[in-house]
Design goal:
The chain is an all-alpha fold and 37 residues long. It has two helices and no strands. It has one domain.
Length: 37
């Protein structure tokens, strides 16, 4: 259960960071895709 929770938390955090970067600086999303994926 703890591992699953950690994975979900990491995914949500990554999604928030990706969303913020996409809103602030759209061009940088292409640079973040390899890092997140």
């Amino acid at each position: 259960m703890r591992v699953l929770f950690t994975v979900l938390l990491t995914f949500l955090t990554g999604s928030l960071v990706f969303a913020q970067q996409e809103v602030i600086q759209p061009p940088n999303t292409f640079q973040l895709i390899p890092l997140v994926g």
